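Bumping my old thread because nobody answered last time. Still need a sequence for this structure:
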């Protein structure tokens, strides 16, 4: 018994050391992997073109050298080599790495994917790709919606921690998009554990006509899926977007 307790104590100490090391590492990754299913309604395909939400798999990764949330935006980690599976991400703004939908790997529900970073040290974040949120706007082929009214997207209790919800107008422009645009915004989004209900405001439906409403429920990585990253500030998320035709009248 004593020997077992000693071994258990050693394991607990090692776990504690790993937790402390993960909390004090200054390399921070905030990332998002988004698959987009081809719309089943052929009328939606032209609306998606040029919006950044075309069918395929895109990824956005923010990297920073920071020890607190206040430092995230002011400490970008530049010049790193970043990949999502086999797809190589390109750096645009300092610390921001992306791959377009037509260049990313095919989204595979249930697959375990890894975002790999090399800046002289190998960093990684892994998570399992969730299934899409199906029929959250209804099961009709086209959803009717009253002009001048908000639209509620109920994701409560479906196991998603956050969401990406977009609205594309009949002219093919984005009128609503809750995608985080900075590392600080993504950090705030990934602190959520249950997305709940997302309300699309009425002004997203600026005229009558056929809209494309995209919804992706997002799953988040766990601390044990992070390697050589700050486990308090780092997280990646993934999900697959489904577009529903919404007829505003």
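Sorry it took so long. Here it is:
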């Amino acid at each position: 018994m004593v020997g077992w307790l000693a071994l258990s104590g050693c394991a607990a100490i090692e776990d504690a050391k790993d937790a402390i090391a993960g909390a004090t590492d200054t390399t921070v990754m905030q990332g998002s992997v988004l698959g987009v299913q081809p719309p089943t309604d052929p009328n939606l395909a032209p609306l998606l073109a040029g919006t950044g939400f075309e069918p395929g798999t895109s990824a956005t990764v923010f990297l920073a050298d920071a020890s607190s949330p206040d430092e995230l935006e002011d400490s970008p980690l530049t010049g790193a080599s970043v990949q999502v599976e086999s797809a190589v991400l390109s750096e645009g703004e300092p610390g921001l790495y992306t791959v377009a939908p037509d260049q990313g790997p095919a989204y595979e529900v249930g697959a375990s994917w890894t975002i790999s970073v090399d800046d002289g040290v190998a960093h990684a974040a892994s998570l399992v790709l969730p299934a899409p949120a199906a029929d959250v706007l209804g099961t009709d082929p086209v959803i009717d919606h009253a002009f001048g009214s908000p639209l509620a997207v109920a994701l409560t209790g479906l196991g998603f921690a956050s969401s990406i919800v977009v609205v594309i107008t009949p002219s093919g422009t984005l009128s609503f998009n809750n995608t985080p645009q900075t590392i600080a915004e993504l950090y705030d989004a990934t602190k959520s554990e249950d997305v709940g209900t997302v309300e699309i405001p009425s002004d997203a439906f600026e005229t009558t006509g056929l809209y494309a409403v995209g919804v992706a429920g997002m799953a988040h990585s766990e601390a044990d899926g992070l390697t050589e990253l700050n486990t308090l500030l780092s997280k990646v998320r993934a999900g697959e977007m489904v577009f529903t035709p919404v007829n505003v009248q």
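The radius of gyration is 20 Å. Let me know if any region looks off to you.
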